[in-house]
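User: Fold this; tokens only.

Assistant: Input:
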Amino acid sequence: MQIILSDRQDITQAGMMYVLGSFGDGECHQADDKYELMEQLRVHNDALVILDYTLFDINDVEELQIVHDRFPEARWILFSVDLSIDFVRRVIAMGQNCSILLKESPMHEIRECIDYALRRQRYICQRMAEMLLSPDQQHGADEDDVKLTRTETEILKDIALGRTTKEIADKRFSSFHTVNTHRKNIFRKLGVNNVHEATKYALRAGLVDSAEYYI
């Protein structure tokens, strides 16, 4: 059993390694970026990939689809803090080899998800399943309906201009935690999962001039 951990958080890596130890013999590999992930998959094309999409350098679901199609024998667990409904629907459409697990999931769900993935069966954690089945869930954020506060709009612009959470916090004389909370709220309101998707929204909405963005 070959497993590729594609997660940049040390505590998550350590916790997942502990859980995987109960599944018998297996060899775990670490991929810190997209290039390393591709290199690992070239060697272990049927591995189980545990990927934190929101923190990894895969830009959008289209790019994830390309990697998935290139290595069709690989099994995938998208293991993240939060994922938009539209993104999850598109991942599910990729096939049975893609499972969804939130980092807040209880231990029994984490173990079940790994077990299902190893048997090439899809697993959707309970919270995400409930969100998918909720009748009032939208398929994505409509730009006319998104209501960002002034602070959120300013932070979104800084994100789109490439500033890190720490840089934004220093600029605003705020704590890292405060800006990170705003960032999570922005992503939730926009229905996006990462900086690349948020930047595309900011460009479409005219918050950032394209010339300014590419400088």
